[in-house]
Write a structure and sequence with these properties.
With 250 residues, the protein is mainly alpha-helical. It is 54% helix and 4% strand.
Length: 250
């Protein structure tokens, strides 16, 4: 899989990058001030999560909009057109990682509005348990957490378990609220090659659109301010952990 980081600095690219930098820098500064007032290293904990919800949700929306603008600036620079299409959903059989804590909070708040929250949480728990079991088995063999995680991610994809938010057609039921980990993944080859048996072959040309290093650093600074919640970075495991905060969210 190709990791796309360097793009020609077109006007659209510069504007998108500056928008992201300004947005994330402002949020990091805001959280720094909260942490300073509270006299601790992090800003968001169980003691002020409910109070901060409106700010967290507003920021998550803005971040997703800014990232989408960034995509519009960089995707035209790819040498081949994107082959992703509606009702494909093949990539939605992966186990998403590196989901930011504020994204988990934002999505969970949206899920709370639905009548099937319990069913969704059970589905997320089963997938999290499946991945954790695969990870533990790999860790026994390789004795390296990073390598075991990489192998477990491939093992999970090979199980071909769809995302709990995919409908029967393969469309995403929470498309507007999905995290950047889902937004950044693209394929330049036919969806028939986005399958476990062809994922690591030349037939599959998929790539991830990462953010510039300075933006990634700002994201790390923001996410560190959520350390008090101890949320895992995995999509499904993170949502299950959010479910434990129902008493706090009210």
């Amino acid at each position: 899989m190709e990791l796309c980081r360097d793009y020609f600095p077109t006007r659209a690219y510069r504007i998108a990058e500056m928008r992201l930098g300004s947005l994330l820098g402002g949020e990091r500064d805001r959280l720094d001030l909260i942490a300073e007032k509270l006299g601790r290293d992090y800003a968001i904990g169980l003691d002020n999560l409910k109070e901060e919800l409106p700010n967290i949700i507003s920021f998550a929306r803005e971040y997703h909009a800014a990232y989408d603008s960034y995509l519009k600036a960089v995707l035209p620079q790819q040498d081949k057109p994107i082959q992703c299409r509606a009702a494909c959903g093949n990539c939605c059989h992966h186990y998403p990682m590196s989901v930011e804590p504020f994204e988990l909070i934002f999505l969970y708040q949206e899920l709370r509005k639905s009548d099937d929250l319990i069913t969704v949480m059970e589905s997320c728990r089963r997938r999290a348990d499946m991945f954790n079991n695969l990870f533990e088995k790999r860790l026994e063999a390789v004795n390296s957490e990073d390598e075991a995680e990489d192998q477990a991610l491939h093992d999970y994809f090979a199980q071909w378990v769809p995302c709990p938010f995919s409908d029967r057609k393969g469309d995403c039921r929470i498309y507007g609220f999905r995290p950047v980990s889902c937004r950044m993944y693209f394929s330049q080859t036919d969806p028939c090659f986005c399958k476990p048996e062809t994922l690591l072959t030349p037939q599959n040309e998929s790539y991830i659109v990462y953010l510039p290093d300075n933006i990634e650093e700002a994201l790390i600074g923001i996410s560190e301010h959520y350390a008090g919640l101890e949320l895992p970075e995995s999509y499904f495991g993170g949502l299950v952990s959010m479910n434990a905060f129902e008493g706090v969210l009210g």
